[in-house]
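Hi! If you just cloned this repository, the fastest way to understand the data is to look at a raw example. We've pasted two of them here, unedited. The first protein comes first, obviously.
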Amino acid sequence: MSSTTEFLLYVPIFADLPTETIEAIARVGSRKKYSKDSPILMEEEAGSALFVIINGKVKVSRTSSDGKEVILTILNESDFFGEMAILDGQTRSANVIALEDSELFIIRRNDFLKLLTDFPDVAVALLQELTQRLRNADLKIKALTLKDAEGKVATVLMQIADDIGKIKHGIVEIEKLPLQQDLANMAGTSRETISRTFHNFAKKGLIETEGSKLRILNYEKFKELYF
């Protein structure tokens, strides 16, 4: 079994497929490395492939009408992107940039569409993932339109905690928090607001920070306060 096959076994939309099918997917796809800050996809490009993150981290963003970057989400190992343009045949809806050195597995459009036809379980898993992303987008829209700055920052922290946090005894630890400017772009606020809000959270005994590591000390209480 190749290293690509082993990796694909842990990708949610492929996880329930037989090993022979995973091996077939590994054969039709290709691997490509991107250095930190390299563009992977650009908004309005034609969509011709699905991308799965083997290792590394990327940000998905759009540029607002006044030229500011708005980060929609940050994706990590085993996450995928590029599916919308593949499914509807339209251009890309966002930019994707490598936040660190990353390696991606790429499946071309025709191969992926055939995969959906041949293996309906992949289509079902894809629909489930897209539904969850829509729910997350709804929560973020509500946060950005209805909540104050503290609520916006808390919503972004909860999103990151749910995506990559590790929970133990009610404490969620985020091992490698995005840079404060990236957090600000996710929350629709400023880097100074992020810093000030973290300070307030720490004074309230809600979080601890240590370098790029952040702990939410009582995640259930945090969600009750800011969800």
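Ok, and the second one:
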Amino acid sequence: MIEMYDKWVKEFMDSWKDLNWIKTLATLDSNVKYYENPIDKPCSNFNEVIDLWKIVADNQKDIEYTYKIITCDEKFCIVNWQMKRVILPSNIVQQIDGIFQISLNTSGKCTYFKQWRFTR
């Protein structure tokens, strides 16, 4: 089980690092319950998720990341991740410490995605 989650997180984070939003979207099930922010409602459809990701290549660069799977079971996986990136066009270096709560289907696609993050 943990291997499947680890594979997913690596693919998700590598595609983010590579600014390849199409590859990022390929890690998600088209019916994913996607929370960009834990206190907001999830995206109402996959087109909203697409809109979130298609701007990534235009607003950030030089991404470095690490992650650690904290716990996982048959229903959920909790991942702690850290990222350093440059925000465009300001070129401000940003550091993030975050948590993903994810669920995967038998095909390895994410069906539930919720994140919490602290940005400096």
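That's it. A detail worth noticing about the second one: The domain at 2-119 is CATH 3.10.450.50 (Nuclear Transport Factor 2; Chain: A,).
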